[in-house]
Design goal:
about 0% strand; mainly alpha; single chain; Growth Hormone, Chain: A; about 425 residues
Length: about 425
């Protein structure tokens, strides 16, 4: 898996992202605690999560449009620099009267990130050979799993010892390091990115600019709609994320009501999922190449659905740990498979829009799942809703039955 790091450009991108994601995980844990310390309010703490979620719905697809119009490397550098600067505003917060600034920073940081993510997803196939995409995406999953395991623990320790200032400084610095490493990437951008028809200067108005952006966005969505492979991936992964949203909301209730555990129990469950994801990332290349993509996606979500139904109805802590570890591994293999399929199937000039739309769809479906859990827990109960999430996982597997046969080991003819 680590052989792809011999590719200098990818190594620079990967190391920069590893550092940046560690910084993000520090803040993900520390900032909610900081808000609660200031306000002693769970409602105020929840406001931060709302502030970070809204831009994913509103700007994910738009970020993809710009990723297809602009030089992606430059776009990623600029977004990293902006995020580094914006985070420093948190250093001004010293009392509850500045709570609005925390929400503003969270909103802006999330909004800017919506321009970075599709650019990165579209850039990787430009700097990595087609036959190495599975390995590159597996290594990305590895870094995410490692940082997910280490970041919250380190963030909690730093916050307890040095306060929010240390976290903000480290996260801001991580963006600067990422920007520097991306700046050192050397490659010739494909001309397709800059092939938009020239427009007379007199015709350039805010209205024409927004109309052009809108048409490009619709053009990308049309590509997803007309292609069965993309359509199936969006549908299957989207339905799965509804189940994920339900579980995210009810995970604490599952720990307390079904496992009769506490915060430490929940920590072990999350760690088990992280360990499963970490091990899966190491062996992704070998496992993914054993199966046709559609069969791997079907098996992953089908097995997860069945295992979740079992664990939600059996209050055995050891069983929960094993199931969560297996689920963590299967999710990684499914995500890497879906991402690689899209990278190989879509032409470079459309990749940003496709990945932007993909991010928006998944974020929307997670919020739908969270809404279902929040609205119906009192009516149906925790166990029934969690069982429904397992059923949804299993049903999402069925959506991949009609996915066209595809290979991750051979070159594809990209969709124009």
């Amino acid at each position: 898996m680590f052989s792809v790091l011999r590719n200098r450009n990818f190594a620079l991108l990967w190391i920069g992202q590893l550092i940046s994601i560690i910084g993000d995980w520090l803040l993900v844990l520390a900032l909610p605690f900081y808000i609660f310390d200031l306000t002693n309010s769970t409602l105020a703490t929840g406001g931060m999560f709302i502030a970070t979620s809204v831009p994913r719905l509103l700007l994910g697809s738009l970020g993809g449009v710009f990723a297809d119009r602009w030089d992606r490397r430059t776009m990623m550098i600029v977004t990293d620099l902006l995020r580094a600067a914006i985070l420093l505003l948190l250093l001004l917060v010293h009392s509850v009267s500045w709570l609005w600034l925390i929400y503003t920073v969270a909103l802006l940081e999330s909004a800017i990130s919506q321009f970075f993510a599709p650019a990165k997803g579209a850039l990787v196939p430009q700097i990595v050979a087609s036959e190495e995409l599975v390995t590159a995406n597996s290594l990305d999953s590895f870094s995410e799993a490692v940082t997910r395991l280490l970041g919250p623990t380190l963030g909690g320790a730093l916050y307890a010892l040095f306060g929010i200032i240390s976290i903000v400084t480290i996260d801001s610095s991580s963006y600067l390091i990422s920007a520097l490493l991306i700046f050192l990437i050397a490659f010739r951008p494909l001309t397709a990115q800059q092939s938009a028809p020239a427009v007379e200067q007199s015709q350039v108005t805010p209205k024409t600019i927004w109309l052009k952006l809108w048409h490009e966005l619709v053009d990308g969505l049309h590509l997803v709609r007309k292609d069965q492979l993309l359509r199936t991936i969006f549908a299957g992964m989207g339905v799965m994320m509804i189940a994920e949203g339900i579980i995210e909301v009810l995970l604490v209730a599952f720990t307390k009501q079904i496992l009769h555990g506490n915060a430490s129990t929940l920590g072990w469950i999350m760690a088990a999922q992280g360990v499963g994801a970490l091990l899966a990332s190491i062996f992704s290349q070998q496992v993914i190449r054993l199966f046709q993509p559609r069969y791997l996606l079907m098996l992953s979500f089908g097995i997860i659905g069945l295992l979740l139904i079992v664990v939600f109805n059996v209050s055995i802590f050891a069983v929960a740990l094993i199931v969560m570890a297996i689920a963590g591994a299967l999710i990684v293999w499914a995500m890497v498979t879906a991402q690689t399929l899209m990278q190989k199937a879509v032409a470079d000039s459309y990749r940003g829009r496709v990945f932007g739309a993909y991010s928006t769809v998944l974020s929307l479906m997670v919020l739908i799942g969270m809404g279902i859990a929040s609205a119906f827990t009192g009516l149906l109960g925790t166990t029934i809703l969690l069982d429904i999430s397992g059923i949804i996982f299993a049903l999402s597997a069925l959506l991949f039955i009609k996915m066209p046969a595809a290979s991750l080991t051979t070159p594809e003819t990209p969709l124009a």
